[in-house]
Every structure is written in structure tokens, then in C-alpha cells.
Automatic annotation (TrEMBL):
<keyword id="KW-0675">Receptor</keyword>
<keyword id="KW-1133">Transmembrane helix</keyword>
<feature type="transmembrane region" description="Helical">
    <location>
        <begin position="198"/>
        <end position="223"/>
    </location>
</feature>
<keyword id="KW-0807">Transducer</keyword>
<feature type="transmembrane region" description="Helical">
    <location>
        <begin position="270"/>
        <end position="290"/>
    </location>
</feature>
<comment type="similarity">
    <text>Belongs to the G-protein coupled receptor 1 family.</text>
</comment>
<feature type="domain" description="G-protein coupled receptors family 1 profile">
    <location>
        <begin position="39"/>
        <end position="288"/>
    </location>
</feature>
<keyword id="KW-1003">Cell membrane</keyword>
<dbReference type="Pfam" id="PF13853">
    <property type="entry name" value="7tm_4"/>
</dbReference>
<dbReference type="InterPro" id="IPR017452">
    <property type="entry name" value="GPCR_Rhodpsn_7TM"/>
</dbReference>
<dbReference type="InterPro" id="IPR000276">
    <property type="entry name" value="GPCR_Rhodpsn"/>
</dbReference>
<dbReference type="InterPro" id="IPR050516">
    <property type="entry name" value="Olfactory_GPCR"/>
</dbReference>
<feature type="transmembrane region" description="Helical">
    <location>
        <begin position="23"/>
        <end position="47"/>
    </location>
</feature>
<dbReference type="InterPro" id="IPR000725">
    <property type="entry name" value="Olfact_rcpt"/>
</dbReference>
<feature type="transmembrane region" description="Helical">
    <location>
        <begin position="96"/>
        <end position="118"/>
    </location>
</feature>
<keyword id="KW-0297">G-protein coupled receptor</keyword>
<keyword id="KW-0716">Sensory transduction</keyword>
Length: 315
């Protein structure tokens, strides 16, 4: 038995103390993780190899998949390992790294989704200026800004969160080092600093959300003016997946971070954390590929290269 008051790390409570539920959790998380790993790696590979998918939209999608791949890898493997070993212990160093990368990648994902909505806005509402505005230099600068912004956000939260003195048992009622749950362990009024940082990042996220909403208001007003049904279908096939991803990710994240942490988390609390941390990186590749003919064609080329080579040769 671990002495909770003397350890330098933390105890993650996880989903259950019963062994059969821990094994079930391992199986479900392992399958989900492998699906996310496969789906996102496929999208990254397809976009990298297919010369027809070198537009800004797919360039940003590739980085979204890379973010999703890293995002789910921050929490799920550690949770699987803890359940397999029937031990929820996580060292202080591991927890610091987990908080940093979790916040950094989540912030970067919000930023890249905002950039993607702006890209669709320019492509649909200002098509004649698209190539001039979204040139390769602009796209690279936007992606660099996304990663830097995420890194700074993660650094601020980590520095403030782990500078607070902790009281009592170091038990985190989550399957990962969740910042709201960790704030409950602080025994100092200095946690107002973390709240200030959280308020700042929440304000930035709100600005991103407003930008996305305004972009799609302009996009849909433009799409409705397109006379041909085929043209509207083509536009919706690229915009609707992005809109669904934005809505799902931001609503789940907003619910998780804006609600007050419970003193005795229920199964529903764990479920909402899964909706935020595990489900989006797993579903995003499916959502983007289902309605996108170019990605389907690219997937076919990757899976059946000889068949597609013969088709192109005799076309």
C-alpha cells in the first residue's frame, strides 16, 4: 500500500478498483488508441504522398491529424499501463509532462481548427484571392504560430499549477493529471494565479470560437447563393466535417473545463472526460474521410498502389 501523504507523485483513481473492469478499460482504450493511431497516420501518409492533396486545406488537416495523434498519446497509454499494473501511481515528472503536453496540444487544436475555418472562408467567399492570401509562406507561418501558441499555453498552466503547495492526499479523481482536479489539492490562496491563466486561455478560446462562427456564417450565406446543387454539395463535403469536429471538440472541452469539479466524481464525469480526450482524435479521421472524395481516392492509392497505377496508365 502506498503512503499517499509521503509520495512525491500522485495517485490516479481511474475508472474502477475491480479487476474485471480494469481489464475491460484496457481493452476498450487499447482498441480506441489503435484506431486513432491508424486513422491519423493514414491521413498524414495520404496527404504527404498524394500530389493531388497539396492544397492549404489538406496541409492544415495533416497537422490536425498530427495534433490528434500526439493528443491521445499523452493520456491513453499511461492509463492503459496503470490499469494493467493495477497501480494508479504517476510520478511528479510524468504528471508535469502530461499536463504540459495535454494543455499545449489542446490549445494548438483549437488554434488549428480556427485556421482551418479561415482557410475555408477565404476559399469559398474570396476564391479569386485565395492563392494570393493562402500561399505556402502564410500556411507555414500559421502552423508555426499554432504550435508556438499551444506551447506557451501549456508552459503557463504547468508553471502556475505546479508552483502551488499541495495539502493532504495526492489523489486525482481522473485517469490522467487533470488540471481542474489538481487545483482541488492546492492548499494556498495562490491558486487564483492558475484561475487567472485559465480565464485568459478561455478568453482566447472564446475568440477562436467567435471567429469560427463568423467564418461559417459567411460561408453558408455564400453557399446558399450557389445555383447548382452539385456546387453546394461539393462545398458542404469539405465544410460540414470541419464544422462537426469544431462543435464536438469545443463543446466537450468547454463542458469539462467550465463546470466546477466534483468532490466525488461519478461515471458521467469520467465519460465526459473521454468525450474530450479520447473520442475526437479517434473520430476525426473517419469524419474527414467519409465525405471527402479526394481523401478516399488517396486512401485507395495507398492501400492498392498497383491497381491504381494500372488505372492511371490506361486512363
Amino acid at each position: 500500500m502506498i503512503n499517499l501523504t509521503s509520495v512525491s507523485g500522485f495517485i490516479l483513481m481511474g475508472f474502477s478498483d475491480e479487476r474485471k473492469f480494469q481489464i475491460l478499460h484496457v481493452l476498450l482504450f487499447l482498441v480506441t488508441y489503435l484506431l486513432a493511431l491508424t486513422g491519423n497516420l493514414l491521413i498524414i501518409t495520404i496527404i504527404t504522398l498524394d500530389r493531388h492533396l497539396q492544397s492549404p486545406m489538406y496541409y492544415f488537416l495533416k497537422h490536425l491529424s498530427l495534433l490528434d495523434l500526439c493528443f491521445i498519446s499523452v493520456t491513453v497509454p499511461q492509463s492503459i499501463a496503470n490499469s494493467l499494473m493495477n497501480n494508479g501511481y504517476i510520478s511528479l515528472g510524468q504528471c508535469i509532462l502530461q499536463v504540459f503536453f495535454f494543455i499545449a496540444l489542446a490549445s494548438s487544436e483549437v488554434a488549428i481548427l480556427t485556421v482551418m475555418s479561415y482557410d475555408r472562408y477565404i476559399a469559398i467567399c474570396q476564391p479569386l484571392q485565395y492563392e494570393a492570401i493562402m500561399d505556402s509562406s502564410t500556411c507555414r507561418s500559421a502552423v508555426i504560430a499554432v504550435w508556438i501558441a499551444g506551447g506557451l499555453s501549456g508552459l503557463m498552466h504547468t508553471a502556475i499549477n505546479f508552483s502551488l503547495p499541495l495539502c493532504g492526499e495526492r489523489v486525482i479523481h481522473q485517469f490522467f493529471c487533470d488540471v481542474p482536479q489538481m487545483l482541488k489539492l492546492a492548499c494556498s490562496s495562490e491558486f487564483i494565479n492558475e484561475i487567472s491563466v485559465a480565464a485568459f486561455t478561455t478568453s482566447i478560446a472564446l475568440i477562436c470560437l467567435i471567429s469560427i462562427v463568423l467564418s461559417y456564417i459567411h460561408i453558408f450565406s455564400t453557399v446558399l447563393k450557389i445555383p447548382s446543387a452539385e456546387g453546394r454539395t461539393k462545398v458542404f463535403s469539405t465544410c460540414l466535417p470541419h464544422l462537426f469536429v469544431v462543435t464536438f471538440f469545443l463543446s466537450a472541452a468547454g463542458f469539462e473545463f467550465l463546470r466546477p469539479p466534483s468532490d466525488s466524481p461519478s461515471a458521467m464525469d469520467f465519460m465526459f472526460s473521454i468525450f474530450y480526450t479520447v473520442v475526437p482524435p479517434t473520430l476525426n479521421p473517419v469524419i474527414y474521410s467519409l465525405r471527402n472524395k479526394a481523401l478516399k481516392a488517396g486512401l485507395s492509392k495507398v492501400l492498392c498502389p498497383k491497381k491504381n497505377l494500372l488505372r492511371e496508365r490506361y486512363a
